[in-house]
Design goal:
The chain is an alpha/beta fold. Helix content is 26%, strand content 12%. The protein is built from 10 helices and 10 strands. A 5-stranded parallel β-sheet has the order 1-5-4-2-3. Strand 7, helix 7 and strand 8 form a beta-alpha-beta unit.
């Protein structure tokens, strides 16, 4: 079983120096698991159909965002939010996921951590993210498939909200305006942060006034956006941001996907899980409510845009 306990205190640094380095898995380690024909192994490709059809890890099942997104009409018209426990249970069981399944998630850029977060939120902590994603797999010279395997069905995993603080909504973000107990990180790209770009689904350009810029790419390799920096490099980025371990950490982006990159990195570094919160509605939800404040421009230019 993968060990991904809620706290990392007293543990020795693992892969790449991370306190919770076992939340990542290398291509070579995954290949070994596949070759050993471990019956509990479930591999999920957090990709869209085009990406998946261009070559996926043998035996992996495609899980695209629409597969685990809640209908907008159940979310006050907000798109992209996480499906409820009943819906997630149905999806997991269709994939053949059991209580004791070893789940590995991979992507081409940043969707894998969204699935990791969803599983963790619903009580499935035996989940690892492939460091380097599909690029690392292909670069290692391993084979890929082009046809999807048959779904296993019959899994027994039952989703239950187990870590409710991993997911927060607009009222809690609004309350941060006058609260010194939390820090809010805007994990979008600079043009979105400054109000120069409006991505599909959002209603207004700009940013939450008290959110600080922390581009999701800060923690990833430039040559491969699916691969994490070392713990030393990621820790330096977090320090430069001014993140305070004593405060609750809130993360958002366009739809709560890229923000899980930052949340997952803080988790890898050993931050307390109960202090890490993903704003699921993110900018789509915030921008939809005309009563909520926004600012635009470069008046508060990002203090951290890149790490040498």
């Amino acid at each position: 079983m993968f060990s991904t306990g809620a706290y990392a205190s007293g543990t020795k640094p693992g892969y790449k120096g991370y306190a919770r380095g076992n939340a990542l898995i290398t291509a070579a380690e995954l290949k070994h698991l596949i070759d050993s024909k471990d019956p509990n192994l479930i591999i999920l490709a957090a990709e869209n159909e085009l990406e998946y059809r261009m070559g996926h890890i043998p035996g992996s099942f495609m899980v695209d965002r629409p597969d685990y997104e809640a209908p907008a009409e159940t979310q006050n018209g907000i798109t992209g939010n996480l499906i409820n426990a009943e819906g997630f249970t149905k999806l997991a069981r269709q994939l053949g996921i059991n209580k004791n399944s070893k789940v590995v998630v991979y992507d081409a850029k940043y969707d894998a951590t969204r699935l990791w977060w969803a599983f963790f939120y619903y009580g499935k902590t035996d989940v690892r993210v492939l460091d380097g994603g599909i690029k690392a797999w292909k670069d290692a010279g391993y084979d890929t498939d082009f046809l999807a395997p048959e779904r296993r069905n019959g899994g027994n995993f039952a989703a239950k909200v187990t870590y409710p603080r991993l997911r927060v909504d607009t009222p809690e973000i609004l309350a941060l305006k006058d609260s010194p107990k939390g820090q809010l990180w805007d994990d979008r790209e600079q043009k979105e942060f400054c109000g120069e770009e409006l991505k599909k689904g959002a209603h207004r350009k700009g940013r939450i006034p008290w959110g600080k810029f922390a581009n999701w790419e800060l923690f990833k390799q430039k040559a491969n956006k699916a691969e994490w920096l070392s713990a030393e490099e990621a820790g330096a980025a977090v320090k430069k941001l001014g993140a305070d371990p004593k405060k609750d950490q809130y993360f958002f982006c366009q739809s709560g996907v890229r923000s899980t990159q930052a949340l997952f990195t803080f988790y890898l570094l050993g931050w307390s899980l109960d202090k890490l919160h993903n704003y699921d509605s993110s900018w789509i939800g915030w921008s939809k409510d005309a009563s909520l404040p926004i600012v635009t421009g470069y008046g508060t230019a990002p203090t951290v845009a890149s790490i040498p």
